[in-house]
Predict the 3D structure of the following.
Amino acid sequence: MRYEPTLEFAKAQDEADPLRNYRDRFHFPSLDTPELAYFSGHSLGLQPKAASAAVELELGEWAKYGVEGHFHATNPWYSYHENLTPPMAKIVGAQASEVVCMNSLTTNIHLLFVSFYRPSRERYKIISEAKMFPSDRYLLETQAQFHGFDPDDAIVEIAPREGEWTIRDEDILAAIDANAEQLAMVFFGGVNYFTGQFFDLPALTKAAHAAGAVAGFDLAHAAGNVPLALHDWNIDFAAWCSYKYLNSGPGNVGAIFVHERHASSFDLPRFGGWWGHDKATRFQMNSGFRPMPGAEGWQLSNAPVLGMSVMKASIDIFAEVGMAALREKSEKLTGYLEYTIELLAQEFPDASIGMITPRDPARRGSQISINIGGRERRLFEDMIAEGVIADFREPCIIRIAPAPLYNAFEDVFTFGKVMRKLLAKGER
């Protein structure tokens, strides 16, 4: 696609965009700024306009039915989570039996580690990326300690090479091979939160299995962002949140994937709760935990309906659009953003503008991370004041994510215009 640095070009692309009307189905922040371009879907997605009505419906059902809403509400609460399963499974490329929405992200990963991190004195190591999201790092540290291992020994971090920002595939695969006899698990973020690098999940899974290890992933920055085929890739387990690209609201419910080959592995250790118990006998209130087959067998508690109603309002939109169409637009938007950043780097060579996200569209999602020669924090704050809402991560990275459901080419043009203004001001 041939890009142009003009407002006319951006408007023309938006007019031709088959997804352009979906932008109107989201609320944009009402900030007192000259411009408004929201690029923080990788941190908190925008609110679907349907969210209020979805919550009001369930509040009305609660007022009308009380406890009987579990069975007589328009969307009966007893099985409410089941409404979310088919569209969520399509988003991540899974069978419906392999997915369930429940709890929150790190809680879910800890629960999955109960089943899938079963270290022995011989096999206990976990290979992960360096500079993973801190919550994942804390999770790995405490899991290793819980099982009696030193985290510095048990966790093998793979870092970028000297002078590079992203991790080379061959370095990960070499580490898996080098640690094969002691390896229990390969655990990565599907998309690295800092650089935006989309890891080769099928290759990592294949290598992990060849080494006799388990493959699991945190897909917080991948679900709803990049194309996934968790079932076909033979991944053992995964978990993700829903408040980033999936737009379900701050801190809302997460989801898990457990491959169907583990569906009836009832001998897998797990923590029990009544919503994971055999549905046919759940209300008999007997002792003896009998997990349901599939991912539902990892549930603990009944559905938090008010939060899930917002999630449903959002993923119903995903079901309409489909990940293929979202991915097609995402690649065009990030291509235009990359083009805009390159123009800025040429116009302001002293600003030392650098893009640390992979240039290959297949190895990134909607996010592009940049550093700007030591001025990142001040520039970021000036961007916010001008109405370009992005995200800053220490020590030096501005993360920008044009989400295809609600971002437009004109948003990217606005980013370029504001940055040009701020960079010019900095040179004077």
Q: What stands out?
A: The CA atoms of residues 234 and 389 lie 37 Å apart. Residues 7-49+323-427 form a domain with the Aspartate Aminotransferase, domain 1 fold (CATH 3.90.1150.10). The chain has a mean pLDDT of 95.
